[in-house]
From TrEMBL:
Biological process, per Gene Ontology: respiratory electron transport chain
PANTHER family: CYTOCHROME B
Keywords per UniProt: Cell membrane, Electron transport, Heme, Iron, Membrane, Metal-binding, Respiratory chain, Translocase, Transmembrane, Transmembrane helix, Transport
Ranges for region Disordered: 1-30, 532-578
Catalysis performed (reactions): a quinol + 2 Fe(III)-[cytochrome c](out) = a quinone + 2 Fe(II)-[cytochrome c](out) + 2 H(+)(out)
Organism: Tessaracoccus flavescens
Superkingdom of origin organism: Bacteria
Top-level enzyme category: translocase
Annotated ranges, domain Cytochrome b/b6 N-terminal region profile: 30-256
MF terms in GO: metal ion binding; oxidoreductase activity; quinol-cytochrome-c reductase activity
GO CC field: plasma membrane
Name the record gives this protein: Cytochrome bc1 complex cytochrome b subunit
Lineage, highest ranks first: Bacteria, Bacillati, Actinomycetota, Actinomycetes, Propionibacteriales
Amino acid sequence: MAKPTSVVETSPEVEAREPEKKSSFPSSGPLNWADERTGLAKIGRFGLRKIFPDHWSFLLGEIALYSFVVLLLTGVFLTIWFKPSMAEIEYDGSYQLLKGMPVSEAFASTLHISFDVRGGLLVRQIHHWAALLFVAAAFVHMLRVFFTGAFRKPREVNWLIGVGLMSMSLIAGFAGYSLPDDLLSGTGLRFVDGLIRSIPLIGTWAEFFVFGGQYPGDLVIPRLYMVHILLIPGLLLGLVAAHLALVVYYKHTQYPGPGRTENNVVGYPLFPVYMAKAGGFFFIVFGLLVLMGGLFQINPVWTYGPYDPAKVTAGSQPDWYMGWVEGAIRIMPNWESHWGSTTWSWAVFLPGVGLMGLLFGLLAAWPFIEAWLTGDKREHHLLDRPRNAPTRTAFGVAGITCYAMFWLSGGNDILATRFHLSLNAITIFMRVAIFVAPVIAFIITKRICLSLQRADRERALHGSEDGVIVRSPEGGYSEGHLPLSEDEQFLLTQHLQHTPLEASAETDGAGVAKKQKVSKFRARASRWFLGSEIPKPTSHELEEAAHHGDEPRRELPEGEDAERQLDGRRDDDRAPTH
């Protein structure tokens, strides 16, 4: 009979201990203590060895990020002295031309920062220039993402975050622009008041909610102040953090080239190479903003004076990123509808609120629209050359042209006075150009892209010119070609080409109705979007082209036959060149 297994009771003083976790830091101290509890070394090792591709266009997003950092730093400085109050006081500061005038506390504190705080005017102008640079860099960065197709799967969410960042930056810029309560910013605030009131049915109620009563009220500056320093910066910080986290998670996109595939990233590690370059670039951006703030005057509120609702500055213009909305309203015909006791002002609502909604709506929907047109559900980590997506590139240039026409329309009064033109003639011209110019830009851009595709195809098949012009015995001229390197040939032929979608049959072979996956409309739209692309060379065509130079040269006949052949062609000096 087997003996029962002996049971040894463990003394309460004896405990099983796990082997002590060794820290990655060689010496004891705060880093060692933190690593044992949080695993900082492992996280740092992963982050510091993250690979980033090296291309100048990726610096556009960094410019926006660094400008945002400068905005935060200078904004903290300005917050210390700015007073967000619309209470009326008598100005008693250093600027003698306004001494004794009734102004708001917000305007007086802005003058105090500009003239009485050491370095205040410099910091205030750096802040304004940084705001303009932030919006401009974000705008150009989004264009780079659009034209290279970096918004495709799996980065649709990051594209939507970018659209949100762009919209939030416009709101932050407008709120900060309105805080000094000067005559120019008050004119812009009156413009926004008109936009709010133009909203059908709820416009008046929305105006009373924003301004705390009838315009201008006495609460809008404090409310804009909280939006500018708390609400929007908080949202921007969250969106920027999410944006950068998704860049790390999905890995960085890269331009096509030798050794670069959809499954790797070719570049430099974050530490030490990229961190050193990024740190140096930050100080370059910061230094440039300091130079601009010190040398180029911007928003001199003392020349405009305090805001008075009964006045407007002559030739007033908003910052460039809001000028297109004003331009749309300036050239819009005076359309109104009167239904019952309500007035629907389409001349303000459609070009103002409606146009901004249309812009950001199209931007947000574009990744899904393109995926619907192409039927492409693959992941993309390699970027497109803009020429290899001609319709998308043409759409982008058409959108930029439309934006430019609206922006020019916002300065129609300046154009009329500077160039001695009729204001009405400029307005009528812009009403036509806003529809015609984008179409012309679309057609020209698409033809240029297709021409570049043909040039790439010819270069991949025939190589590059050797620069030596040879005249044949027949009198013709030709230039030899040199074969391309494998790297360049790969670059010219690596891109994917989508096949236009075909409409699915409504019934199967047995005549049973089935769900239609591709409608006829979608198939026609896909053919229009993809059908004009130039096919890239096939592997068989490339192999044939590679053997063209192996053919033996044709030798001239000798003796009298050669002389007779040359004599018969001496007059043919006008032979076409090749």
